[in-house]
Amino acid sequence: MQNPFDKLRTFNLGGMFAKKRVLGIDIGSSAIKIIELEKDNGRAILKNYGELALGPYSDGPIRQATILSLEKISQAVQDLLNETGITSRSGALAFPLGP
């Protein structure tokens, strides 16, 4: 089975502070949050952000905590990236510890 996060492996975590734009993704139990920051004269400027409820990905209501397969989480991340139009490929990722 192919790893559903293979597409995210193009992110360059090691050089993220040298980039002009960086991405932050927080995968929680009920939502995924994403931000894109841009470096401008030594300051971080918020360029884009988004949030996507995960309940509907398990046929549940919005704001409901859920446990999803890696495939569903990967699809939700891709949906959020497409919805926000974020193109940065350098950044950081946070996952929940699990049950």
Detailed description of the structure:
The longest helix has 15 residues, at 70-84. This protein has 99 residues and is of the alpha+beta class. 15% of the residues lie in helices and 32% in strands. Mean pLDDT is 81; it is low at 8-14.
Question: Could you provide a short overview of the structure?
Answer:
By secondary structure, the chain is an alpha+beta fold. It is built from 1 helix and 4 strands, in the order E-E-E-H-E.
Features:
4-stranded mixed β-sheet; alpha+beta; 99 residues; 32% strand
Global Rg: 14 Å
Apparent shape: elongated
Number of DSSP strand runs:
4
By secondary-structure content and strand pairing, the structural class works out as: alpha+beta
Strand order of the largest sheet: 3-2-1-4
* Distance linking N and C termini: 24 Å
Task: Give the percentage of residues in beta strands.
Answer: 25-35%
Mean pLDDT value: 81
What does the oligomeric state look like here? single chain
**Approximately how much helix is present in the residues?**
10-25%
SSE arrangement, N to C: EEEHE
Major pleated sheet: 4 strands, mixed
Residue runs with pLDDT of under 50 for 5 or more positions: 8-14
Tally the helices: 1
Question: Helix and strand layout, with pairings?
Answer:
Blueprint: E1 21-27, E2 31-40, E3 43-53, H1 70-84, E4 91-94
Parallel strand pairs: 1-4
Antiparallel strand pairs: 1-2, 2-3
